[in-house]
Amino acid sequence: GLERGAKNQFSTFSNFITTINQKKEGAGNRSPPTQLVIPNIKNVRDLPPICLDVRQKQRVSVDTLPQELKAPIPPQPSLPIRTKTVKDFQDDVEKAKSSGDWKAIHDFYSTSFDSFLEINAAFKKDANFPFNTIEDSGINAKFVNVVYDALLNTPQDVQKSVLKGIINGLLQEWKGPRTKDDLRAYCILLQNPQFSNTSTYVIYAHLLRQIAALTEADHHFLVHWSKKIAQRRFKQLVDRLLQFISLRLFPAKPEEFPPMMKCTWWIPSATKVLALFNAANSLSSPSIISYTDFYNSTLDHIDLMEEYHNWQCYGNSHRFSFCQYPFIISIAAKKVIIQRDSEQQMISIARQSLVDKVSRRQKPDMNMLFLNVKVRRTHLVSDSLDELARKRADLKKKLKVTFVGEAGLDMGGLTKEWFLLLIRQIFHPDYGMFTYHKDSHCHWFSSFKCDNYSEFRLVGALMGLAVYNSITLDIRFPPCCYKKLLSPPIVPCDHNTLVGICDVTLEDLIQVMPELAHGLSELLAYEGNVEEDFYSTFQVFQEEFGVIKSYNLKPNGEKIPVTNQNRKEYVQLYVDFLLNKSIYKQFAAFYYGFHSVCASYALLLLRPEEVEILVCGSPELDMSALQRSTQYEGYQKTDLTIRYFWDVVLGFSLDLQKKLLHFATGSDRVPVGGMADLNFKISKSETSTNWLPVAHTCFNQLCLPPYKNKKELKQKLIIGISNAEGFGLE
């Protein structure tokens, strides 16, 4: 980055603008580069904000700028001819390094970044070709990368000349819509590595503000051009924007930046530009980087509920809220929002129950503050179904479970046991509600028709209760299930509106029925005569209770042959039938069950993948984190048995580590808050060392006998976790 010190004090912004606007002397008689490049941020006069909300597309008018900040209007000549190649530039750099004479490099940088016109002249593939399509930005990406990679290793006057040119370009008066050359210049400037340094943030902020204020059509081009940026550099751009937002929120040295009240547009501008990269990432298949790379963990430390309430009250109006851009909010922060929102709903409903009771002059009962579920173990599903149906108005209260005929208070263990037992029973193949696909290791809804779909509603309500009460479920649904669950994320007021229907593709089917999806892929790729060789029609067959039934994919489908011309339509209709139409009533009941508990605007913040993590936990295991957060009962963490245990577990394969987690907690996934949220405990078992370890999954507790050596502990532990199906209830 740029060196800072007493000998490199920076001038005020207005003085620097004066320097920019002075006519240049001849290139051969260049005076030493000015030291007055980066503004003294404390003395900066900010350009006026575009608008209260960066999403309103307005261009900066030069008439709104103070007189001293107006730059002269340059003529609009055609692009200058620049012939320097990547090899020429690299040769010049090597010569400068060996000779110490950086004049040629200084001239190149100061000229190339002097204006948007010069940026295009230097980095456009062909100066005479317009490159007006979204497919090709016309940017010589290799040259841009080489020039930027070399920049931070050049002398300070070279780096300052680049920033000087950027400010010159940003202060240019704009008349009419931006050209594609302007968009190209913005795309190139965003990649400047100098903007990782906080001393350049004022310049960076103005660049982001101008990009954020472009029209939707211009953003459309920038999004598609950004898809072509290499993965590593794309990630660097995203990280730079996230860092800018974080340091503006929580500056390490507040004196480095203007007061927040004078630059309230910094964060909205940066977030809007980040949204363009998120859009580019979402449009790419596969995505360039993970959606989690857009999370800004700094936001975990701000008042999230204020952000959420602002968003609820003002929606997408003038008032900025991070909830307008949920991709930047981490799953941990979203969980906090959902939990607090659900707690507020719980409190509100409990308070209303209390008021109703008092108004009728009845004695208040503490049980009225909870959703009390009483079930018999022998009639678990039917009792649970009856209780949840009867107490539908109480679903948003805190859950408490009682097993009839058993003494015990529900401190969380009984609730978790109820979920575990109920899920295991409902998803058992003999129950017939769900089909387990071995190839994909997931469950899918049975397409069998029935008179009552209330049990599917029960499963949806169970998932909602799990999210609402922060319980992780051992459920294996494919990703498209959660996509359907958010279609739409808010239950429509019109009950005739279809729910749980979403666009599905062959990629979605692969995650459920990979073998069938593979067959359909081969049909699409078949080079022969599809009609003659496959002899198929737009009709499919399914077995239901031993009877083969046929279904038309379109009207008169049994009479329409599948051909080379219409096979894509056939595959799309087949996938839609399997994942949407054939299970509509089952999934609609499931959808309404889930939303009967989790109805909240907070669901609008979630991606389908995030709903899955909230329900089932994360598959990412960190056993070292589990070791750090484990509690002990009867043992000390320095005891020999405990040291043996962690030596063995940390040396396990991922598969064995998952089996251990499943054995001890009932699920091989980790809660959103990480291993610490498991509250994992190892207790000393006062039994013979011939016994295997025992787990109490309701309490995430492992009972470990004091084995005498590591070999014996490893042997017994592997046997225990590998043969742990079913419950041994005392």
UniProtKB/TrEMBL annotation:
Its EC number is 2.3.2.26. It comes from Crypturellus undulatus. E3 ubiquitin-protein ligase which accepts ubiquitin from an E2 ubiquitin-conjugating enzyme in the form of a thioester and then directly transfers the ubiquitin to targeted substrates. It catalyses: S-ubiquitinyl-[E2 ubiquitin-conjugating enzyme]-L-cysteine + [acceptor protein]-L-lysine = [E2 ubiquitin-conjugating enzyme]-L-cysteine + N(6)-ubiquitinyl-[acceptor protein]-L-lysine. Keywords: Ligase, Phosphoprotein, Transferase, Ubl conjugation pathway. It is an enzyme of class 2 (transferase). Pathway: Protein modification; protein ubiquitination. GO terms for molecular function: ligase activity; ubiquitin protein ligase activity. The gene is Hectd2. This is Probable E3 ubiquitin-protein ligase HECTD2.
